[in-house]
Structure prediction request, 116 residues.
Amino acid sequence: MKFKTVAYAALIAAASAAFVIGSGGPSDAKAKKKMAAPPPEPGPCFMIAGPVCGAKGGMKFNYANACYAAKDGASVVSQGACPKAKAHKKAKPAKKMEKKSDMKKPAAKKDEKKKM
Prediction:
């Protein structure tokens, strides 16, 4: 009889543990993050400061001021305009080689002048 009582108690404990584990759902934190309002957009931009260099998507852009950079979603990298990228030097064209037949003609003319 004692064994039946212990077995029933173990069965009830296992069932209640399974119920507690199974009833745990996903956290409400994800839902709260989705419902959070995006930050408000900055108001109208005025020419308060000079130009800035802003980075957006791995590229750098010049903006009139930090306000315009923020409106475009860029982060300000430095004050002032972005430095210009160095241009690649063009390769010099190769010199045209004269044909061997062209090289012989002037020499032949010199010989003709001597004969006369």
Q: What stands out?
A: The chain has a mean pLDDT of 74. Helices lie at 2-23, 29-35, 66-72, 100-115.
